[in-house]
Design brief:
This protein is mainly alpha-helical. 84% of the residues lie in helices and 0% in strands. Helix 1 runs parallel beside helix 5 and helix 2 packs parallel to helix 4.
């Protein structure tokens, strides 16, 4: 596990940097919708892998919750985008999220047992913190459409709950 921490930390630093500095211009609503969809899709992909590979039943249950919850947010975002005739637009941030998510899944595929569980949970902590920071510092402040902004505000507590849940899981795993 100690060898994995530097790689996890480096990946999270890159993700944080990309969210904060990928584009110096404020994202428009179409780009914000694209970021929302990408962020949720990344966590769905990792969750699906963890559903099948996690050893610890609590980690497996957490992964199932990530797939369900983030899938639900993507459904809400898609319905809202359709209602607003807003096509989610790719941006440097959404592309970076997708690339980082693919790299994470690829790395996780090479792990088994407790190493997988620990790496998955560690990444979920960093990822949800990064997403919360993006929500607070980029998405909410720059969303122009009130309904889009309200959706982001509405899902923020769930993202924070996911972060707290992952932290509790990490504490449980460290006791084993």
């Amino acid at each position: 596990m100690n060898k994995l921490l530097p790689r996890i930390a480096a990946g999270c630093v890159l993700l944080c940097a990309s969210l904060a500095h990928a584009d110096t211009r404020a994202p428009n609503d179409a780009q914000i919708a694209g970021i929302v969809v990408a962020a949720n899709s990344v966590d769905i992909d990792a969750g699906k892998l963890a559903e099948s590979k996690a050893q610890d039943p609590k980690v497996k249950a957490f992964a199932q919750r990530m797939v369900t919850d983030h899938g639900g947010v993507n459904e809400q975002a898609s319905a809202l985008a359709k209602k607003l005739a807003l096509t989610p637009e790719s941006s440097d941030v959404s592309k970076s999220l997708q690339q980082g998510g693919a790299a994470n899944v690829s790395r996780l595929k090479g792990l088994q047992g407790a190493a997988f569980d620990n790496a998955y949970v560690e990444h979920e902590i960093a990822y949800h913190q990064t997403v919360l920071d993006a929500i607070d510092n980029t998405l909410i402040p720059n969303a122009k459409n009130a309904e889009l902004k309200n959706l982001i505000v509405k899902v923020r507590p769930a993202i924070d709950d996911h972060l707290q849940h992952a932290k509790h899981l990490q504490a449980d795993l460290s006791k084993k």
